[in-house]
Amino acid sequence: MSAQKPASWAYAEDFVIESEVVQAARRRGEELGCTPVGVGVGAALRMVAAASAARAVVEIGTGAGVSGLWMLEGMPADGILTTIDIDAEHQRAAREAFSAAGVAHQRTRVIQGRALEVLDRMTDGAYDLVLVDGEKTEYPDYVVQATRLLRSGGVMVVDNMLWKDHVADPTARDEVTRTLRDLGKGLRDDVRFATSLLPVGDGLLVAVKR
Asked: Which helix (H) or strand (E) segment is 163 a member of?
C-alpha cells in the first residue's frame, strides 16, 4: 500500500459537505450512543437513492436519523422512507431531525419494534432500496428479508461490512466478524445479485437485485 492511500481515503470521506441539519443529527446520535454513518457513507447512500430513483425505501436501524436524511436528499420528492428501530429515544431524535430538515411528515414512516418482526409484515417486491444497519448478528436474517422485499432492479445496501478492519484479517474469528465475512462472500456469490464492496466508511456492500 502506498503511503498516500490513507490520505486519499480521508480526503474522499470528507469530500462532500454535510448540511448543518445532518451535523446536528450526528451530534445527537453520538450523544445517544447510536453511531451515525460517516459523511462518506451518507454521500454514497444519497447517490444510490438518487441513481435508483428510489421512491420506496426501507431502513433497518433508524439511529438519530443521519442515514435517513442522506437518503431522503437523494430520493424523489414523493419518495417515502420507512425506518425501523427498537429504541424509542432514537426515533424521537430522528423525527426531530426530519422535521428540522423540512421533510414532510407523510414522507417518513417511523416504526418502533424489532426489525425482523416488522419486516415480516411488509410486502414482497414492493421496495426500491433497503439499507441494512441494525444488530450485526441478525444481518443474515435482515438480508433474507431485504431480498424478499426488493423489486427486480432494487438495491440492497449493507453497512459495516469491513467491520473495523476485522473482516479483511483472516485471524479475526469473533462472532460478528465471521458473520459479516460469511455474509459478504455469500452475497458476492449469489447469482440473484450484482454485488460490490465499497471501501467507504466501515465498508458498504451494495447489491443490485437482478
From this structure: none
CA 158 to chain CA mean position, Å: 6
The Cα–Cα gap between 195 and 177 comes to: 19
Burial of residue 171 (CB within 10 Å: 0-12, 13-18, 19+) is exposed
**Nearest-5° angle of CA 128, CA 114, CA 89?**
100
This prediction has a pTM of 0.96
Alpha helix (H) residue ranges in 120-166: 139-149
2-17 mean pLDDT = 86
Query: Is the per-residue pLDDT at 118 higher than 60?
Result: yes
**54-77 per-position pLDDT tens digit:** 999 999 999 999 999 999 999 999
Taking domain 4-209, whether its CATH number is 3.30.420.40 is answered by no
Sign of CA dihedral 171, 195, 49, 62: negative
pLDDT score for 131: 98
Exposed / middle / buried, residue 159 (Cβ in 10 Å: 0-12, 13-18, 19+):
buried
Give the pLDDT score at 36.
96
Indicate the domain borders of the chain: 4-209
- 8 A C-beta contact, residue 40 and residue 84: no
